[in-house]
Structures are given as C-alpha cells and as structure tokens.
Specification:
There is one protein chain. With about 270 residues, the protein is mostly helical. The chain has a single domain, classed as MetI-like fold (Orthogonal Bundle). It has eleven helices and no strands. The longest helix is centred in the C-terminal third of the chain and has 36 residues. The protein starts with a helix and ends with a helix. The C terminus is likely disordered.
Length: about 270
C-alpha cells in the first residue's frame, strides 16, 4: 500500500524524533562511561577506560551479575515448561471459561510491576509466612516470563494448525512420539525466541525484584539503583549500565531474528 507523500514524510519525521528520544540518552550513558570527569560534565573533558577496569574488578557488581543470571535462567526454565504446557493445553481442549484462563495467564505482564511486586510480597510474607529469598524472586519473575513463552507457542500453533500432528497419529505414532518428533521440532524456534525474551525480561526487572528480594539478594539492576547516587560509584555504575544496554539487546535481537526467520520458513513451505 502506497502512502501519500505528505503522510509518508510526517511518519518518517515522527519516527526519527521517537528514535532520537529513546536512543540518545542510551548513547550518553555509553559515552559517559568513558568520561574522565566523575560528575559527567558535558562535553567530556577527556576519555578514559579506567572506569571499565574498576567496574570489571568490582566484587559487588560481579556478585549482582551472577545473581541476575541465576534468577533469569531458572525463571526462563520454569516459563518454558509451564508456558508450553499451558499453550498446548488451551489449544487441545475446549471448555467453559477457556478465554478467562487465557486472560489470567497473560494478565501478569499487563499489570504494573509495583502491583505485582506488592501482591507477591504480601503473599509470601503475610499469607504464607515465607521469608524473601532468591526463590521468591524466581517465582515472581516466572509469572510474567510465562506469558512470552505462552504467546509464542499460541502464535506458532495458530500458524501451523494440527495437520502434521494428526498425520503422525494416523500413521500409528503415540502422543509422546508425536510430541517428540513433530510438535517439538515445530515449536523449537518459537520456544527459543520465548526463552530469550524471558531471560531479557527477568534480567532487567527491578520493580518486582525490589518487593520480592531479601536484603542479602541483590540483582544487577538493584545494585545499579543503590549505587547510582554514590559519588565514588557513579562512574562504575555508568560502565555497568552501558554494558547492560549492549548485552540486553542481544537476546532481543536473536529472538527477533528467530521469529522472523521461522515466519519466512513457514511462508516458503506453503
């Protein structure tokens, strides 16, 4: 569909403005990580890599990074299992309230993080009497990570239909064999994309983590927030934040490529 010239120019200008507003502050974070001035005066009087060296050798940053990786990995595994099972279950069965169940699965990612975090904190500490720990963070993160896997599974099933699975069972394969040889290969790229998105969401989460983490458990986003206003730590925080900007883009990029390539493969097969 061809757009009128004036509308096309307007959309281009608006897109450029939006991209500038989003990405210029991120670029400033990266530039300031090399700023020789601790107060980040602009323009930078000089550039240095000493802050990166200090950030790499920071024990607190390394421990927080490892905590974030552990939480994100476990939450992603839980999301893969439960999200896939939920997607398959709702696809294969028809019952009263099916749409309500689907809505309840998707709802956690639509709720404000502060509401989710407060609800989990009250649930863990007040109702269940469970002390906050690394596992409470994992459980809280898994609730919204499940949504990404569930949506990817649902979308893949909607595009593929059930012809291949029916053909497999018509040829004598049982449910387990059909899942292993037909369903799982069809879902592989969708599950990998969902896993990458889930890992990225969990790794960057701070609001829900603040309400569900104990005083001893600090993820990297919490470490950044706690050290942001400390003068001696500010340059190191900038380096860690710059590294996060770069590494957080990797799973999102890979997930996008996987989703795009799988869609092209399906279109070509048809």
């Amino acid at each position: 569909m061809r757009l009128p010239g004036g509308l096309r120019v307007s959309l281009t200008v608006i897109s450029i403005v939006v991209l500038v507003v989003i990405y210029v502050p991120l670029l400033l974070v990266v530039i300031n990580s090399f700023n020789t001035n601790r107060t980040f005066s602009w323009p930078p009087p000089g550039y240095t890599t000493q802050w990166w060296s200090l950030a790499f050798n920071s024990t607190g940053a390394r421990e927080a990074l490892w905590t974030s990786v552990k939480v994100a990995l476990v939450a992603t595994v839980i999301a893969l299992v439960l999200g896939t099972l939920a997607g398959m279950g709702l696809r294969r069965t028809r019952f009263f309230g099916r749409n309500v169940v689907s809505l309840l699965i998707i709802l956690p990612i639509a709720l404000p993080g502060i509401v989710t975090g407060l609800a989990f904190q009250n649930g863990f500490r007040t109702i269940l009497g469970i002390p906050l720990s690394l596992w409470t963070i994992v459980i809280a993160h898994a609730t919204f990570c499940i949504v990404t896997v569930f949506n990817n599974v649902q979308a893949r099933f909607a595009r593929l239909g059930g012809n291949f699975e029916q053909a497999s069972m018509d040829l004598g394969a049982g449910p387990v064999t059909t899942f292993r040889l037909v369903t799982l290969p069809m879902l592989r790229s969708a599950l990998l994309a969902g896993a990458l998105l889930s890992f990225g969401l969990s790794f960057d989460e701070i609001v829900v983590t603040t309400f569900t983490a104990s005083a001893q458990d600090r993820t990297l986003p919490i470490w950044i927030f706690q050290n942001l206003f400390r003068p001696n730590q500010a340059p190191i925080v900038n380096c860690v934040a710059a590294a996060l900007v770069i590494f957080s883009a990797i799973p999102i990029y890979l997930a996008q490529r996987l989703s795009g390539s799988s869609s092209e493969g399906l279109t070509g097969a048809r």
